[in-house]
């Protein structure tokens, strides 16, 4: 089996950075050229990275934040202090090259869910990234009558990338009309005051989000969900969704919800 971390870099795996935007001192997004042969489903992730000091590629999993139809690839990234990759990656500039292994995979894809009428996208932190792809994917609005995007961070500034992306959708020439009023955006913070506050788990369990948005409570006959956050968040959201009667699906067995890790935590 090919070892992704140690495989030599070949020319097709190098992509050029086209733009970089820093959102906070811990978050940035960037765009790179797309290999013409790369096909992926909106919501999937790939391995990207830089050459390490030892001359071997230093690669990490990253959700593709751009939709499958985009000419370029977008990524939304944390800056981990002393993180092997992101302590370097945060300094990339347009014209620099990154490594991209063109083997997309993942469970946050439409194919892994049974048909339904409402889609819940539930994320914390950089777990928003796969949903940045799916929110720009026409299939999302073809398949569902309503799409509810819940994103929770500690502080307001950490919501900025998601907020700007959601706000840009209505003017998007390709999908603006499709989005219409189908999309409901529910950002919350937990450690700084903002319009809506609280953990996603708490807002679902208490019913606050249903009340605030004027929606019926979750029903496994109608509702589908995609989840992306820390391991603790994913674990706790799964329990909430199961209480509503939703079951976890996969590419091989589509059901009512799917889950992906936004990152692997310390010591796990
Ligand atoms: P690492 O050694 O990889 O991580 C060091 C520590 O930093 C981790 O133990 C953890 O505690 C913390 N950490 C790592 N990533 C994050 C994060 N995203 N948010 C909060 N804390 C973190 N990262 C992204 O920034 N954007 C993505 O789209 C993304 N998609 C991923 C998809 C999958 C399926 C997985 C498994 C991970 C994903 N990651 C994503 C995490 C990414 O792979 C790296 O862990 C991250 O880029 C940090 O790399 P590093 O080498 O600097 O530090
Ligand atoms: P909180 O501030 O109450 O811990 P982090 O930065 O630690 O990854 O957290 C990102 C966001 O996810 C924070 O708003 C945090 O809320 C929330 N969060 C962390 N763990 C959980 C969990 N187990 N269930 C629900 N929300 C969580």
Explain the overall architecture.
The chain contains 8 helices and 11 strands. With 268 residues, the chain is of the alpha/beta class. The strands form 2 sheets. A 6-stranded antiparallel β-sheet has the order 4-3-6-1-2-5. Strands 9-8-7-10-11 form a 5-stranded parallel β-sheet, sandwiched between helices. Strand 3 (45-51) and strand 4 (57-63) form a beta hairpin. The radius of gyration is 18 Å and the shape is globular. The structure holds flavin-adenine dinucleotide and adenosine-2'-5'-diphosphate. Flavin-adenine dinucleotide binds next to strand 4, strand 5 and strand 11.
Biggest sheet details: 6 strands, antiparallel
Secondary-structure content class:
alpha/beta
CATH topology description of the largest domain: Rossmann fold
| pLDDT < 50 stretches | none
β-strand percent reads 25-35%
Radius of gyration computed on alpha carbons? 18 Å
Largest sheet strand order:
4-3-6-1-2-5
N- to C-terminal distance: 23 Å
Bound molecules: flavin-adenine dinucleotide, adenosine-2'-5'-diphosphate
How many separate helices?
8
CATH superfamily of the largest domain: Nucleotide-binding domain of ferredoxin-NADP reductase (FNR) module
CATH class category of the largest domain: Alpha Beta
């Amino acid at each position: 089996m090919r070892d992704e971390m140690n495989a030599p870099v070949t020319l097709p795996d190098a992509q050029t950075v086209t733009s970089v935007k820093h959102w906070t001192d811990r978050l940035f997004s960037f765009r790179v050229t797309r290999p013409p042969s790369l096909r992926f489903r909106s919501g999937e992730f790939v391995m990207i990275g830089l050459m390490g000091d030892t001359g071997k590629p230093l690669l990490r999993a990253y959700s593709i934040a751009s939709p499958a139809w985009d000419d370029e690839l977008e990524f939304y990234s944390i800056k981990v202090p002393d993180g092997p990759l992101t302590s370097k990656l945060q300094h990339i500039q347009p014209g620099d090259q990154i490594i991209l292994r063109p083997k997309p995979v993942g469970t946050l894809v439409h194919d892994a869910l049974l048909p339904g009428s409402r889609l819940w996208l539930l994320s914390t932190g950089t777990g928003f990234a796969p949903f940045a792809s799916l929110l720009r994917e026409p299939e999302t609005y073809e398949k569902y009558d309503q799409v509810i995007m819940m994103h929770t961070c500690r502080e307001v500034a950490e919501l900025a990338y998601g907020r700007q992306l959601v706000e840009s959708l209505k003017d998007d020439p390709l999908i603006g009309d499709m989005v219409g009023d189908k999309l409901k955006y529910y950002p919350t913070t937990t450690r700084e005051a903002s319009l809506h506050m609280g953990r996603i788990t708490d807002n679902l369990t208490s019913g606050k989000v249903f009340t605030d948005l004027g929606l019926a409570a979750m029903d496994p006959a109608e509702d589908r969900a995609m989840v992306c956050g820390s391991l603790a968040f994913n674990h706790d959201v799964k329990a909430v969704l199961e209480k509503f009667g939703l079951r976890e699906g996969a590419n091989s067995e589509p059901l009512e919800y799917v889950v992906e890790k936004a990152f692997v935590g310390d010591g796990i």
